[in-house]
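Hey, quick one: can you model this chain's 3D structure?
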Amino acid sequence: METKISLIMLCRAVIVGCVVWGSVIEAFIVRKDFQVESSDAKLSTLQLADKYGYRAEAHQVVTDDGYLLELHRITGSGSTIYEKRLPPVLLMHGLLASSADWLLIGVGHALAYQLSDMGYDVWLGNARGNRYSRKHVKLTPDMDQFWNFSWHEIAVYDLPAMIDYVLNITGKERLHYLGHSQGTTTFFVMASVKPEFNEKIIFMQALAPVAYVEHVKSPLLNYFVKHMGVVSAIVELFGISEFKPIPGIILELAKMLCPTSQANNLCVNILFLLTGDDPEQVDPNIIPILLGHIPAGSATRQILHYGQEILSGRFRQYDHGKIKNRFVYGQEEPPRYNLTAVTVPVALYYGANDYLSQTGDVQRLAKELPNLVGYHRVESDSFNHMDFLVAKDVDKLLYRLLIDNIEKYSSEDD
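Sure thing. Here's the predicted structure for all 414 residues.
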């Protein structure tokens, strides 16, 4: 009897072992590790693309108010041929970020590379004030006036200029738009303030959409908002108009404090306090690369504008204070953005553990969009704000769906 029981237990152990090892093997087959190097932290977007065998170009776009934006274009790799029949795709980064966001996790994983491999004409935007767009026809970054903008101006001037430029260069009438975080905010503002641009977009896909931010969960951001009156006064008093990239010396210090050998290091935990914790999806090798590219610079006013949105619970223009608002807007309160004017087909993608783009705020946005064609919760309970760009499983959890939708709407646009 004991022998029989032992044999049964042995068989069960073998079966369980096979199932476990089968799952491990399957995981390695489905998900390859990111092929990235620590030196990627110091490379520009064009240098990253070139390093990994992709043809890339820099284009200069001039806005109506004089900012010179650097727009990056990836036309393929050595193994692919760019086909002009496919529509262009414009990818727009979030707050404190840049065009590099769409390349950081490397070949075979990053969305820009995947789209380029399929023959799409991929364009990567850079908003005014980041490391690639720090020029103006008259102003310099040393002048406070250069930084006198929020994401409202990025929406009203930068996005229209980039969209028109891409369509003019490619000879196409419409393009695909994908934005992450602030890249969605600016799109919704543009499409509501300049509704004629709805006709120039085939399909808009919003990753971690940010319009309403009343329910932001980040302890770091909520602490900032709690003391925003003091912060605003300090910013005004000392003329702190620019939020700069991390200095090189701090990056070197971060290497010691946040070794890639430790999956749960200090830098990862700080990131989690801001964006939401998701240790299972973090590849420690990506953290120093991420720190090398984010923050990429922005105007302080962009951050203050989001703080105002959290306090007011509304999606509206920058609040200068009642007196100045009367001069700027002709009323004491800033005007609200009219989301019913966003008539382009829109799909929203949100994470259940995203501290910055909370489910309740995304639901509120979804109810106000007149042409919502997709509303997707990423199938991971811990998916956070940065996972949309750097999660280990972002390809199978999200990018395949994004690409399928681009393919679908591209065929319908032919």
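One thing worth noting: Residues 1-31 have pLDDT under 50 and may be disordered.
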